[in-house]
Amino acid sequence: MEIQDIKLYNLQELKEILNVSERTLLTYLKRGKLKGQKINKRWQISERNLKAFIHGDTHPDRTGTE
After folding, report:
1. How far apart are CA 17 and CA 39, in angstroms?
2. Is the pLDDT of residue 61 over 70?
3. Residues 3-58 pLDDT 10s
4. DSSP H or E run through 43
5. Which band of pLDDT confidence, cut at 50, 70 and 90, is reported for residue 1?
6. How far apart are alpha carbons 53 and 60 in whole angstroms?
7. Which residues, 6 or more positions from 40, have their beta carbon under 8 angstroms from its beta carbon?
8. DSSP letter (8 states) at residue 7
């Protein structure tokens, strides 16, 4: 999904990209290791926040969509 030129990933896409379970992704979101936002009751993670997570940055933008 893309909103205003911001690439967003859902949990299904991230499961495949990161090769982890949905439960693991939800744990990362709950603990703040991965930043995301619910849009229409579904988690969406921006490309910026995904890259920050991969590089170990635990303080990317707050909303995941900026």
Report:
1. 20
2. no
3. 888 999 999 999 999 999 999 999 999 999 999 999 999 999 999 999 999 998 76
4. strand 42-46
5. confident
6. 8
7. none
8. E
Q: Tokens for 22, please give them.
A: 């949905």
Written as six digits, the tokens of 12 are 């299904």
Q: Residues 10, 42: contact at Cβ < 8 Å?
A: yes
43-56 core/surface letters (b: 16 or more CB in 10 A; e: else): bbbbebbbebbeee
Provide the whole-model pTM.
Answer: 0.79
Which tokens in the block code for residue 32? 């703040």
Amino acid occupying residue 7: K
The Cα 29–Cα 43 span in angstroms is: 9
> Which residue shows structure tokens 């979101």?
29
Residue 63 in tokens: 């909303």
